[in-house]
Amino acid sequence: MYGNAYIENDTKLVQSAQVEDPEKLAEFEARIARGEKIEPDDWMPAEYRRQVLRMIEQHAHSEIIGALPEGTWITRAPTLKRKLALIAKVQDEVGHGHLLYAAAETLGKSREAMINDLLSGKSKYSNVFNYPAKTWADIAVIGFLVDAGAIVNQLANAKGSYGPYCRALERICYEESFHLKQGYDAFVALATGTPMQREMVQDALNRWWFPPLMHFFGPPDTISVHTEKLMRWKVKMMSNEEMRQDFMEQYVPKIWELGLTLPDPKLKKKEDGSWEYTQPDWDEFFRVINGDGPCNKERLAVRRYAEENGRWVREALMNPTIKHIVPYA
Ligand code: COA
User: Fold this and answer.
1) Which of 302, 296, 253 is nearest to 128 (CA)?
2) Highest averaged pLDDT of the listed ranges 4-13, 15-24, 291-300
């Protein structure tokens, strides 16, 4: 199966990108320039396959891991309505993970291989999910601002060139809009609540804005390694800095109008319409995405536990004739 060939011959495929048939490559790039979608059975350069797969796979992992910090608050949600909304949101996020794994599989890597790479630390997932959700206000900030950031990114990527990814993103964006509304509602409730609630949401905002949310869109364009190629192939439709600017433009005013502050003394809109801000520590970013953030070990340990304890279910589903020993039965 060529999926295995991809996994085993990763390096070979990348090298082969340098010797692609020039005619095929020109036709491929012309299709992209015309705004056509690339579908799984179409010819594509090995490097395009590798890059799109890398991005969708990381995105899928982010959805699955992203369910963990919010999931821990389901039992502690302050009201029944908040609990119901949070349960629905967490369930949606896991569903997004499945949609994205299915889109990534069309490029030839099995879901099992992707999960293995997540658990071994080989694959990355979003930096933001390696920070703790200490109070209920963190859930409001995640629901409002992390989902808002995800929408900025996903609305742009949904107009990209790889058909299965774009179709998955269109559906995901509808659901993310509901997530943003529930997050904003919880955020406003705290910001306009008692002094203690206001203090709680301000504290969560301070911790999430700087640096996790400022890191969320990736490193500055000058050091982003993949942007140039991905934008040429219309996989990424905005650069990291364009997304960060769009996010600040839409959401900083919404935060300020509630009388809350942001932990960046430099933050202001310049005369040319762009936002000035303090550069976050990019060494910290690379440490966090490479496994050394405050919660990386905990997040992967929870996923590993789920993987190991769910194995008997997967095996039973794949082969119902085998007798299985059911743990805890
Ligand atoms: N969290 C974790 N890793 C990140 C990141 C983030 N917020 N931003 C960038 N990185 C990683 C990249 O994956 C890359 O690592 P790699 O080469 O080992 O794969 C490295 O940092 C350099 O960044 P860059 O060259 O800018 O990567 P990119 O062009 O792929 O852009 C994204 C980064 C996140 C903007 C892009 O991959 C993307 O849009 N992904 C899909 C959306 C997504 O994953 N969202 C997750 C949250 S819901």
Assistant:
1) 296
2) 291-300
DSSP string, 34-96: TTPPB-TTS---HHHHHHHHHHHHHHHHHHHHHHHHHHTTGGG-SSHHHHHHHHHHHHHHHHH
Mutate to test the pocket of ligand 1, among 55, 128, 165, 230 (most ligand atoms within 8 A of CB): 55
157 lines ligand 1 (CB under 6 A): yes
Q: pTM for the whole thing?
A: 0.94
pLDDT tens-digit series, residues 40-90: 999 999 999 999 999 999 999 999 999 999 999 999 999 999 999 999 999
pLDDT for residue 327: 60
Measured by CA distance, the residue closest to atom 28 of ligand 1 is 226
The reply to whether 123 falls in a domain is yes
Our answer on whether the CB atom of 216 is closer than 6 Å to any ligand 1 atom is: yes
Query: What's the token pair of residue 149?
Result: 């950031």
Instruction: State which of 145, 166, 289 you would mutate to test the pocket of ligand 1, scoring each by most atoms of that ligand within 8 A of its C-beta.
Output: 289
Helix 46-71 and helix 80-105, axial crossing angle in degrees, nearest 10:
160
* Distance separating alpha carbons of residues 14 and 51, to the nearest angstrom: 10
Closest CA to 296 of 83, 25, 61, 43: 61
Per the domain annotation, does 72 fall within a domain? Answer: yes
The amino acid that residue 117 corresponds to is D
Residue 159: predicted pLDDT: 98
The total domain count for the chain is: 1
User: Would you say the CB of residue 130 lies under 6 angstroms from ligand 1?
Assistant: no
Q: Which domain holds residue 113?
A: 53-318
- Look at residue 255 in the predicted model and tell me its pLDDT: 98
- Residue 211 preceded by cis peptide, ω within 30: yes
